[in-house]
């Protein structure tokens, strides 16, 4: 870590004169992209797109995970401390922490399988938002390059190869402080880029000082020419925090705690993630080949308490989740254009997770009092995909693809009955038919199969880790089947419209319940919905993006408990009005709305709807920039997230009380950032 800090600080100390002699530099051209880019002739489905620097630079962000809200229809929330992965919602999925949405950053898969807190756990707190060059996103299971965790879609986040030399400092209410240093230099065809972020935050909660201590480092060394490119990337992330989890509504109504209070004030956690990755790309004639390899070292300790004193009236229900793993993986991709009418894309990917400890422990004030279960897991996957894009005529093209995935699960549990080895293979076909109605309009019909893997412990588990009762094995891989009709169009190169009507079936809503140490097999489900996404360049200064999505999500069996899927949002809408003037002034107002989702299967209990607004205003010159972000602009006391379940407070009946549990928005706060270009 000392090497990362020293190298980046050295970069920051370089004199400004380095950039004053362009003839001595070979920095590659930086292409700026945004949602104003029209994808007619390139897109393979109606619901894919690109988000670039122009969209993200002035967008107000409460947390790093908010960058994913640039994907239309995706909602990012938080029900715990700042260092924990965000909870996400898309297309009628309560994605939890990422189970059905694949996220990749610079070739590194972020979703963690067989994770201590939840399957597909996606923590992007190690992402420095200012380093993002673009986000390529897709929705639905129609793209052959996406495998595990991609039923609802996926996002590939690319960071820039070259950073502007700058220093930035942010100060805000509730003890928020953030420092950022980033920059690049080049010698011949070789470049070195780095970024360093430090953050402290006390939080707005009345009973808990979050005491966030966060450190992020990124170092990229690369080079090449028109034919070949190579890059090595080193990342390190370290964070520790205290947490204010969701709280019971009845405790607030009785005045026991405030809406910003806590029942258990000893919650929180710590995590770290280090990675080393490399990429090599070669272009020769009509062929482009890319190799990727990566090594990740990851640790997490998380302390939670959702039911307070329901299971253990004397010591309380606090528990610790532990994940300690090493990940080794790589991929090969080949793109071949034998003619203007035909493209071939194929590739393979392998990943091995060596999870030394994945465990669940009973705790009191972060001291262990017992073990629920502790396992060692080896999980290996191999995937191969192929896709052909064939232009049948100037107006018609077809995309045909398929992928095959093979998984092997090896679990060594403390209870030998839950140890074992399993494996599974899945073939997933994909297809799209596209008609180009005009130079600015295309129609799409897409279909495909997707999947997510299940937690390895559930695949081999035969007895409940808590009760010792027999349980049924779950399927290693869970299939989804989806289809979509949609259109993309552009008007006068200023207004982009994308609309989609989609349908998705999931064979089983299987979920590892990390909080209980068991795998819960729920029911098959079906979803369908409508999406409308707009981006309008009003003039040379003003732009507006406005998105709305409606979803109907239901279990599709005949269980008497009801067909509503808890946490499945029906209506999501957002709008961002942005301005960037020639004299340096800029600003953005973002508003998002979510309706009240059902919280139990019969639909009789629903969450409240919520509206959240953020505002940014600033001025940027050649050397200095100053901006102010007003987060939760209207000081809304709406709720980030809500659940309905039984919990027990001190003095209540032993069986507990079923109640709404919620985590409200953080109150309005102002953060001011000063940036100096070096």
SSE layout and pairings?
Blueprint: H1 2-12, E1 49-52, H2 53-56, E2 75-77, E3 87-90, E4 93-94, E5 101-105, E6 108-109, E7 132-139, E8 153-159, E9 166-172, E10 176-187, E11 190-201, E12 212-224, E13 228-242, E14 247-248, H3 249-253, E15 268-284, E16 287-304, E17 319-339, E18 342-364, E19 367-391, E20 396-413, E21 420-438, E22 441-453, H4 456-460, E23 477-491, E24 495-506, E25 510-513, E26 518-521, E27 525-537, E28 542-555, E29 571-580, E30 585-594, E31 610-620, E32 624-631, E33 639-647, E34 657-664, E35 669-677
Parallel strand pairs: 5-8
Antiparallel strand pairs: 1-7, 2-3, 3-4, 5-6, 7-8, 9-10, 9-35, 10-11, 11-12, 12-13, 13-15, 14-34, 15-16, 16-17, 17-18, 18-19, 19-20, 20-21, 21-22, 22-23, 23-24, 24-27, 25-26, 27-28, 28-29, 29-30, 30-31, 31-32, 32-35, 33-34
How would you characterize this protein structure?
Helix content is 4%, strand content 56%. The relative contact order is 0.13. The two termini are 24 Å apart. The longest helix is centred in the N-terminal third of the chain and has 11 residues, at 2-12. The protein has helices spanning 2-12, 53-56, 249-253, 456-460; strands at 49-52, 75-77, 87-90, 93-94, 101-105, 108-109, 132-139, 153-159, 166-172, 176-187, 190-201, 212-224, 228-242, 247-248, 268-284, 287-304, 319-339, 342-364, 367-391, 396-413, 420-438, 441-453, 477-491, 495-506, 510-513, 518-521, 525-537, 542-555, 571-580, 585-594, 610-620, 624-631, 639-647, 657-664, 669-677. The chain has four helices and 35 strands. The model is unreliable at 1-33 (pLDDT under 50). The strands form five sheets. The protein has a 22-stranded antiparallel beta barrel. A hairpin with a 2-residue loop joins strand 3 (87-90) and strand 4. With 678 residues, the protein is mainly β.
């Amino acid at each position: 870590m000392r090497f990362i800090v020293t190298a980046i600080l050295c970069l920051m100390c370089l004199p400004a004169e380095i950039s004053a002699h362009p003839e001595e530099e070979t920095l590659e051209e930086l292409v700026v992209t945004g949602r104003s880019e029209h994808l007619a002739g390139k897109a393979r489905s109606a619901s894919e797109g690109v988000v670039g620097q122009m969209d993200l630079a002035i967008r107000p962000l409460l947390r790093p995970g908010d960058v994913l809200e640039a994907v239309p229809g995706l909602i990012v929330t938080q029900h715990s401390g700042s260092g924990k992965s965000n909870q996400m919602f898309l297309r009628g999925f309560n994605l939890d922490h990422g189970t059905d949405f694949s996220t990749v950053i610079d070739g590194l898969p972020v979703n963690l399988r067989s994770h201590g807190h939840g399957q597909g756990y996606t923590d992007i707190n190690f992402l420095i938002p200012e380093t993002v060059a673009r986000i390529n996103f897709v929705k639905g299971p129609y793209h052959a390059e996406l495998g595990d965790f991609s039923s609802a879609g996926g996002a590939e986040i690319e960071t820039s190869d070259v950073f502007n030399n700058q220093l930035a400092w942010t100060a805000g209410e509730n003890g928020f402080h953030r420092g950022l240093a980033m920059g690049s230099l080049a010698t011949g065809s070789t470049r070195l880029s780095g970024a360093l972020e430090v953050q402290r935050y006390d939080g707005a909660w009345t009973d808990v000082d979050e005491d966030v201590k966060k450190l992020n480092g990124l170092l990229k060394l690369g080079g090449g020419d028109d034919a070949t490119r190579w890059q090595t990337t080193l990342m390190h992330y370290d964070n520790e925090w205290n947490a204010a989890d969701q709280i019971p509504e009845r405790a607030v109504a009785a005045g026991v705690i405030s809406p910003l209070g806590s029942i258990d004030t000893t919650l929180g956690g710590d995590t770290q993630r280090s990675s080393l990755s490399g990429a090599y790309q070669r272009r020769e004639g009509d062929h482009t080949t890319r190799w990727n390899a990566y090594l990740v070292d990851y640790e997490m300790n998380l302390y939670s308490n959702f039911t307070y004193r329901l299971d253990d009236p004397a010591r309380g229900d606090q528990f610790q989740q532990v994940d300690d793993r090493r990940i080794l993986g790589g991929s090969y991709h080949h793109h071949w254009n034998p003619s203007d009418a035909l493209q071939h894309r194929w590739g393979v990917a392998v990943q091995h997770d060596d999870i030394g400890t994945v465990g669940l422990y009973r705790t009191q004030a972060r001291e262990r009092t017992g073990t629920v279960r502790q396992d060692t897991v080896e999980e290996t996957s191999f995937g191969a995909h192929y896709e052909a894009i064939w232009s049948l005529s100037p107006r018609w093209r077809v995309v045909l693809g398929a992928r095959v995935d093979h998984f092997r699960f090896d679990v060594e549990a403390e209870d030998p009955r839950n140890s074992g080895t399993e494996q599974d293979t899945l073939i997933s076909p994909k297809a799209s038919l596209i008609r180009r109605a005009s130079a600015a309009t295309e129609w799409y019909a897409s279909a495909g199969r997707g999947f997510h893997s299940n937690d390895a412990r559930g695949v081999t588990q035969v007895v409940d880790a808590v009760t010792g009762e027999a349980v049924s094995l779950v399927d290693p891989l869970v299939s989804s089947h989806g289809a979509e009709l949609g259109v993309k169009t552009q008007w006068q190169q200023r207004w982009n419209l994308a609309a989609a009507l989609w349908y998705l079936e999931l064979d089983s809503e299987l979920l590892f319940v990390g909080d209980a140490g068991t795998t819960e097999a729920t029911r098959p489900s079906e979803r369908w919905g409508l999406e409308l996404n707009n981006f309008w360049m009003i003039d040379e200064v003003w732009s507006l993006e406005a998105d709305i999505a409606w979803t109907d999500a239901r279990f599709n069996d005949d269980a008497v408990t009801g067909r509503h899927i808890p946490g499945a949002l029906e209506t999501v809408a957002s709008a961002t009005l942005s301005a960037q003037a020639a004299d340096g002034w800029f600003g953005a107002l973002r508003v998002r709305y979510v309706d009240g989702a059902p919280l139990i299967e019969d639909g009789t209990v629903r969450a409240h709807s919520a509206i959240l607004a953020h505002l940014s205003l600033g001025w940027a010159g050649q050397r200095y920039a100053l901006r102010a972000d007003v987060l939760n602009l209207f000081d809304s006391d709406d709720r980030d997230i809500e659940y309905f379940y039984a919990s027990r407070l001190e003095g209540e009946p032993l069986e507990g009380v079923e109640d709404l549990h919620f985590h409200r928005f953080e109150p309005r706060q102002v953060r001011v950032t000063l940036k100096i270009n070096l």
